[in-house]
Amino acid sequence: MNKNQELLARREQLLGTGNPLFYEDPLHLVKGEGVWLYDADGRKYLDCYNNVPSVGHCHPHVVEALCEQARTLNIHTRYLHENILDYAERLLQKLDPSLDRVMLACTGSEANEQAMRMARHYTGGTGFICTDASYHGNTSLVAQLSAIFEPIEGYADFIRMVKWPDSYRCLDDLEGEALATAYADCVKAAIDSMHEAGIKLAGMLVCPIYANEGLSDVLPSYLQQAVKHVHDAGGVFIADEVQSAFGRTGTFWGHEQAGVVPDIMTLGKPMGAGHPISGVIARSEIIDGYRNAAMYFNTFGGNPVSCAAALAVLDVLDQESLVENAAEVGDYVLKGFKGLQDKHDIIGDVRGSGLFFGIDMVKDQATKEAAPIETKALVNKMRHAGVLMSNIGALDNVLKLRPPLPFSKENADYLLEILDQQLSSL
Ligand SMILES: Cc1ncc(COP(=O)(O)O)c(C=O)c1O
Fold first, then answer.
1. Which of 257, 291, 319 is the last residue of a domain?
2. Do the domain assignments include residue 38?
């Protein structure tokens, strides 16, 4: 038995089966630095997947801030401390002034759970709308919004899933504004169906860039029209920015891409560069009423060490101009992918913004038939060639790439070269 087989056997014995792992030949990683990861044999991989350490693996400024605070004090959140206030202040400075309250937690699921509960409290409704290819977390309420993993309890009657705004396999073969309106009409139809069932809408919860659905180039007027339908029905719009925030899209927030200001937004993954911290941001009228009614308290959410890490992430984003880098290098990579699309028939569509890309793989460009088996094979080939990525999407056929934000044009050239080689070998 080699070392990896030994670890796999231990893992299965101790954690049980069903703990997902990436790649047919799983990786045993032991070190990370910038955009690079290293395995136990000392082999180096270009990380084109991980958005949690989005300021770069083990960034020295974040590590130092974390250690310094851990050496000084870490305690639960019912004492006064500056870190949580400094952090809340710096987040709010980057947002529309209507969003004026911050609530901290530890995971994206928890943030979405709180967002849904406060939407219900604020609107008096119970119903939620999500897309038909969504994932938003693993608590029992949030699992109701998971189209890709059916909840073990089955779906409740208060959920309506609308067609996700796919810009490649377009609804009724429409384009442009007509397509955006057709998808928004699906939201209106979902609200009508809820009303017919006697269910009042609480809100619509979607990722503003449809990160798990497979990314979309549908015009921003889709979400603008959809949010208007939601508001007209007395509901709120919750932007799940667990993947899309903190510069990933080349703008600081994902909702800037969609041209809407959410009523509530949720944050997670890259917030603490791997340290577990998440958040909900909303108008005070929404958060305050809920906090008082629900007595929300979170032992770890917003503790001094988590906030020190999150503050350091904001420092690095600003000091290293990483949002601007995501926009600039992102455009460069996107052009490179479009070049590969001209060369390789298996690439049906290339989408994305900033340093978040989806490459839609097809068996046939004319029919747009998805190629999930080939996509998975390519992900595994890339792993063996030393570049890490994954696949997602409603049809499991979208190569998903989200490298750490310090990704350079040199890194991009390396990625494009290896991808070109591996596509040719498929
Ligand atoms: C869009 C989105 N929201 C929420 C979550 C849940 O976050 P967590 O795993 O931190 O609970 C995820 C996780 O993948 C996600 O992709």
1. 319
2. no
pLDDT in tens, 165-185: 999 999 999 999 999 999 999
Contact 229, 184 (CB under 8 A): yes
Tell which atom from ligand 1 comes closest to the C-alpha of 107. 10
Last residue of a domain, one of 319, 340, 360: 319
Nearest ligand 1 atom to alpha carbon 244 = 1
- CB-based pocket (< 6 A), ligand 1: 107-109, 112, 135-137, 207, 211-212, 240, 242-243, 268
Distance CA 274, CA 348 (A): 34
pLDDT digits (tens, 9 = 90+) for 196-231: 999 999 999 999 999 999 999 999 999 999 999 999
Full domain range(s) for residue 170 = 61-319
What is the full DSSP assignment across 28-94? -EEEEEBTEEEETT--EEEE-S--TTTT-BT-HHHHHHHHHHHHH----SSS--HHHHHHHHHHHHT
CB-based contact 105:280 (threshold 8 Å)? yes
Give the mutation target among 269, 275, 300, 390 for probing the ligand 1 site: most ligand atoms within 8 A of CB: 269
Model confidence at 1: pLDDT above 90: no
Does 149 share its domain with 239? yes
Could you tell me if 224 and 364 lie in one domain? Answer: no
Alpha carbon of 115 to ligand 1 centroid (Å): 13
Q: Are residues 213 and 303 in the same domain?
A: yes
Q: Which of 140, 144, 243, 264 to mutate to test the pocket of ligand 1 (most atoms within 8 A of CB)?
A: 243
